[in-house]
Amino acid sequence: MLDTLITNKTRLKLLIRFFLNPEATAYLRGLEEEFGESTNAIRIELNRFEAAGLLLSWEDKNKKMFSANKEHPLFADIRSILIKHTGIDTIVSKVINNLGNVESAYLRDMTAKNMDHASLELYIFGEPIDREYLLTLTNKATTLIKRDINCITLSGREEHAFLKNNRNALLVWKK
After folding, report:
1. Does pLDDT of 2 surpass 80?
2. Which end of the chain is less crowded, N or C, counting CB atoms within 10 A of the terminal residue's CB?
3. CA distances from 114 to 10, 34, 52, 120, 139 (A)
4. Burial letters 65-75, b for 16+ CB under 10 A, else e
């Protein structure tokens, strides 16, 4: 998979961090906390991505902020590869698209740090959701992506409160 192609874990974490959630911004110390890695390793990779034009940077008070360069010619390709690598494409095609009545779906804590975990938390908003059928679909997807998928179903009315408490949630599907 992608992690065997990219042997540098910091590099892979940065790609996942910025390209799965392209609206996200971050700064060096925040990434150090999130990744649990040295600032030097992160700084080297940030500088490489910035020099390649994959990341944009700007000053905000005393912090150098970074975000994905959505105008880069490879942005869509990198994002597509990461979506496949993480199994998001399988979750959408095998679970969400087959459920019906889904208004939106998010992966919680879909950060680079959590990509090493054996499970994903999928929050599905809509009603009514057939829980039995959902279990059948997630079992199939679990086999394909080789990760457990823990599904939480909520009504569409609960989406705003969810987003308020889960700012890093990754939107994977919207009606």
Report:
1. no
2. N
3. 13, 10, 26, 9, 21
4. bbbbbeebeeb
pLDDT tens-digit readout, 118-147: 778 889 999 888 888 998 888 888 888 888
Q: Whole-prediction pTM value? A: 0.76
Write out the DSSP string of 124-144: EEES---HHHHHHHHHHHHHH
Q: What is the dihedral of CA 103, 108, 112, 114, to 10 degrees?
A: -140
Full domain range(s) for residue 11: 2-77
Instruction: Answer yes or no: do 92 and 62 share one domain.
Output: no
Rounded Cα gap, residues 147 and 143, in angstroms = 7
Phi-psi region of 115 (alpha: psi -120 to 50; beta: other; left: phi over 0): alpha
DSSP conformation class of 92: I
**How many domains does one find in the chain?**
2
- What tokens does 31 get? 């990434």
Q: What sign results for the dihedral spanned by CA atoms 50, 53, 167, 115?
A: negative
Residue ending a domain, choose from 77, 97, 131: 77
Give the SS3 label for residue 24. Answer: coil
Is 63 domain-assigned?
yes
Last residue of a domain, one of 25, 56, 77: 77
Report which DSSP code applies to 173. Answer: E
